[in-house]
Amino acid sequence: MEHSQNSNTGFQKTVQPGSTDTTVPETLANGSAPAPSQIIQPEPAADSHPAILAAEEQLAGSHSTILADDEYKAAMAPLKPQPATYWASLILTGSIVPIPSAAATITATLYITSSDWATFIPFVPPHLLVIFVGAFGTLLIWLIASWPFKRFTSFDSADVRSAGHLKRHLLALKSALRVLHESVSSPVSEDERGNVLRAFRNAHPQDYDLALDTICSCLVEANRQVASDRLNWIMGSGYIGVWNFVQRAEEALLTVAPREHVIREAMHDEASIDGSTIANRDYILSNTKTAVKLLSPSASIYLKSLSAQDQGLTLTNNGVQGNSPVPTVTSPLQMQDKVLSLTTELELEARNALRDARQTLNEFRSGLWEGLITLRNQLFGTALITAFLTYILLFVAIGAGINVESMKAALVFYLVGATVGIFSRLYTESQTSSAIDDYGLTVARVAVTPLVSGLAGIAGVLVVAILSINILNTPGDPSNHGLPPLGVVYDIVKNSQGIVVAALFGLTPNRLINFLQQRADNTKTQLKNSSAQSQNNA
Fold first, then answer.
1. What is the pTM assigned to this prediction?
2. pLDDT tens digit string along 369-390?
3. Residues 439 and 524: beta-carbon distance below 8 Å
4. Residue ranges per structural domain of the chain
5. Can you tell me the distance from the alpha carbon of 40 to that of 299, in angstroms, rounded to the nearest whole number?
6. CA distance readout (Å), 265 to 243, 262, 325
């Protein structure tokens, strides 16, 4: 995502080593200090004030390294993702195709053909042999089939889109940390930006060093999590964990980064917050506008949600003029002791306001992402429970000695319902936009559909058979024989219309899944609206 660029170059005051030139703001005609928006270009003062000279000496002596070398090296270390693991591939394939469901299908097929092979071991009951062979065969197929999917379980491959975004953000953070570390730790030079950063750090060493340490610590932890051997990549929660550290580092960067970078990020955040549904959106936008106007009055005209009247700015041939309220003083000489402290205090407050706005936006979007992952994992859990219940139902039916013809009919009804349900689900998913990454939520919906639709098909045949008998029977007629036997209901020849019934009932679970999809789509819409890209295209 490209961010808007601006021409602000940093602080108004630049101190060169050994220089006696001092730049102080001019006063208005009424003796009050000008607002930042009214400063066009300060003229050099004739004499240097002691406060300014003291700041120059402090700046010239700022040669100490802020970050420890080992801490800095750990933060700047390249990413070293661990290779994919076989255990993760087992969980991945077991989530997409629940093992109990596969075991039930294989066992039912073996039961239908058991008369051809189950008699080879006479001392083992055929139904027990079928269950054992079905379970063992499913386990063997699972172990073999999972091996090729091993490559899709690492940080780089489990979610390619999220991994790419994280890498870009981490590289940008490390580049910013390197520039800040070198600029502030190096001696005073001809680099105006480095001198400005050192002056800001010397004015607020605790706030500056705390933010820089936060950036470094978050980068170290992000590197550690990426390098860990975790199963959370395939679950999606691993990426959210790394994103949280990246976001905290990016928020802290707004405290120490050059002013033009902070303004660019603020304009990006303003566009994102303006389209979001954050509860206190107007309050955050107001703080963002005020902070940007304070840091750079000329940049406030680019704020999307700021009206021309609220900007209070007028572009003239002499520069930028404004009408914002300013503090009142008697003369520039009386304010020279407070020029630097007042400027840095106001700037720190503005940076903190922008940092809070960024944190609120990040927490809002992280909550939406976590909601998608939670829904996805719940669907996978539902699929696993449904598959397990299906296997238990089959186990009971085989133990009760169900005849082969009924097993054939039940298997056919199950497959018909599952097939109709999956095709309906695929058609619905094809109409859904994939612009927003959902961390596998779409796959979870597709995976759970055939399981639920297959059971719905089997149950639907029984329900329709019971209802049809009750409707057609005449009350009090002695010829009524009650409910039909299951051997008749689950018989392809005697109940051929059951195939149509199974197909119709196979569509019913999609009503519930469509409701869940609507919730997910609403979440993805909020994510899209809270991104600057969508607002720029609006």
1. 0.74
2. 999 999 999 999 999 999 999 9
3. no
4. 84-153, 402-538
5. 14
6. 18, 5, 26
